[in-house]
Amino acid sequence: MKTTQLLIPTLREDPGEAETVSHRLMLRAGLIRKTAAGIYTYLPLGLRVIRKIEQIIREEMNRAGAQELLMPIASPAELWKETGRWEYYGKELLRFKDRHERDFCLGPTHEEVITDLFRREVRSYRQLPLNFYQIQTKFRDEIRPRFGLMRGREFIMKDAYSFDADDAGAKISYQKMYDAYTRIFTRCGLTFRAVEADTGLIGGDVSHEFMVLAETGEATVVYSDQGSYAANLERAEVLPPSELSDVPLRPLTPVATPQRRTVEEVTAFLTISPRQLVKTLLYRADKDTVAVLIRGDHDLNEVKLARLLRVTEVQLADPDTVSRLTDAPVGFAGPIGLRGVRILADHAIKGLRNVVVGANLADTHYVDANWDRDFTVDQFADLRNAQAGDTSPRGPGLLTLAKGIEVGQVFLLGTKYSKSMNATILDDQGKERLAIMGCYGIGVGRTAAAAIEQNHDDKGIIWPFPIAPFHVHLLPVSQSAETADATERLYADLSAEGFEVLWDDRTDRAGVKFNDADLIGAPFQIVIGDKGLADGVVEIKVRRSGVKSRVAPSDVVAHLRRLSGEADLALRLDSTSCA
Q1: For 250-278, what is each residue's pLDDT tens digit?
Q2: Which residues form the domain of 85?
Q3: Helix, strand or coil, per DSSP, at residue 562
Q4: Is residue 89 part of a domain?
């Protein structure tokens, strides 16, 4: 394909709206353009990347036995009301009415639609297992879309749904999808980890996220530096302290702490470590309020708290509620004398002695407080975020933290949707049984963006070979007939060999062409000029390493075949070592 035949509107300057590397480079390289907040048009180069990722997904999903179909983007409210998600999903669900005043939504996911199809078309256990997938546009009305394709409102997603007759079969289907995802992201040339994850709005019992490791990632990955344990921060387990303190108890003493409310202010004023302070946090959970005790140097994990309380979300109590329950302003709440609320504490609290807590009195804290003497705890639980250096909860090693971008997630749903929608099959005894389900998603556009976050330099994108919009960028730097003829022959030879070639046939200066080539990021660049041809060579540059080779035109195909094989092997080894 010639550059003059393609819309490739590259930009010289960074767009002001771009917040991440992938967003900036996708705009600058002419892959996408913004239509509205969180909604983008894919330009030709961007769409080529998307289609390549989709093709890899299709091949591996088909290999795993899944069947492709296509469901409507608009879903009737009746299906969502059956599962309770019409209300539960919140404002992210874009609702609308048709001309007959019937309620619909744009599908952010398709559990309801596929379960409805299953219950109408499948009758017997003999038809199982089944796994259906689609690659389709979704819509979630994000409150704050940002980061380009990372968190958009409209996005392309591969979603799949498995149906089995029993739990054992469902686990087999889940493992097949887990393995398929491992192959997909390996083939895309990504360095990733599969981590245990919270099930969130989708629900279910077991879930893993596939995280592309990148410093710009929004999510935090927690993994053992020696063993195989890995989880996202929301799910990462923290072990209780292995030993309890045997320090002698000191008398409880109130101390004035004027205008010192935060952990930093109180510990600095009392010249103690944050480890010696216990925060008392009041949270609303549905209609109840609970008090949560967390060590001063730890952070509460709200997902763990919500899971413990069996609610969908928790929120910090407002200042009026805090004042009413503690008789003190925010910053001075404590567990001593606290009445009318359930007191929960992280496991770490059990191992502490002689700590500082709020006194439920303005400008006052207690020092040398002890939970088994001065106040009671209704329940201890794992309620904090894991930290680097914590002992791995399973297997050897200490925990390490890294940033990651979620590109896919697999869920073992159980009967969450089949029960609410009465999706049953007849078993071998002729009895009705609920189908056991799983669901499996991949963000296609997010995968492309994550690949850029992981593969770039200060000049532009460095595409992994399998998903590059073009494999080879031809850069003639002369307008002579000799250069034109040599370029045309290379284009024909490379295309015949299966390489996808972008021929920069513009009359711009060489520097402009080189800058755009580095920005667009094809794995290989070939510079053709009169001087090199006079010596019987062209110059091949590997975009990733910058290494240049002078090669005879007749040897270019063989040389690139070898380089592309080496690059593919290196990417596969890189990916599997971190999976």
Answers
A1: 999 999 999 999 999 999 999 999 999 99
A2: 18-237+400-454
A3: helix
A4: yes
